[in-house]
Write a structure and sequence with these properties.
The complex is a heterodimer.
Chain A lengths: L2 E5 L2 E5 L4 E8 L5 E7 L6 E6 L5 E4 L2 E5 L3 E6 L8 E8 L3 E3 L3 E6 L1
Parallel strand pairs in A: 2-11
Antiparallel strand pairs in A: 1-3, 3-8, 4-5, 4-9, 6-7, 7-8, 9-10, 9-11
Chain B lengths: L4 E3 L2 E4 L5 E6 L6 E7 L6 E7 L2 E5 L7 E4 L6 E5 L8 E8 L5 E2 L3 E5 L1
Parallel strand pairs in B: 2-11
Antiparallel strand pairs in B: 1-3, 3-8, 4-5, 4-9, 5-6, 7-8, 9-10, 9-11
Classes of the chains: A mainly beta, B mainly beta.
Amino acid sequence: EDQVTQSPEALRLQEGESSSLNCSYTVSGLRGLFWYRQDPGKGPEFLFTLYSAGEEKEKERLKATLTKKESFLHITAPKPEDSATYLCAAGGQNFVFGPGTRLSVLP
Amino acid sequence: DTGVSQDPRHKITKRGQNVTFRCDPISEHNRLYWYRQTLGQGPEFLTYFQNEAQLEKSRLLSDRFSAERPKGSFSTLEIQRTEQGDSAMYLCASVETGELFFGEGSRLTVL
């Protein structure tokens, strides 16, 4: 059965304190690994797609990387406006989402 | 606005009533997905359409749930005889070739 897990469940950082979020997946026939940001009461907002191991994508303070079993979302020098839930999803036969990591960045 | 739109954004209903949600996808996207999300969880797959054909349904989609996409355009998700456990955010997303693009969701509260 396709499965996606994320860790940690919640993360609290001070502004400027860099860290990484983990996404582990077991999906047959992976067609892409997707990262989303979700603000409370809103739909998920697309961030990145990664297609093959070794691929990296960057956007502002965020960088996503992919291996054969995991993906990482690195957050460099975060700001309070980066506070959100970060979801990853594995696209195989379908799109399977992890439970998310709730990130809080304190000023 | 050319994004995915959902209506209504919020719905409060009493247990046993029927509710219907509508989703208008991005116009050139031929695949449309419905997900359900409860507090603190990631989105859970419900069903998806390729044009007007419903190609897959999750076991989460009990016989009280029905989804349609007439003419391959907008889609509706109906829940009959709502139960308190149906309270959740119902998310619609569309895709052409790669990533899902989500609407803002329809939040259902069943009293």
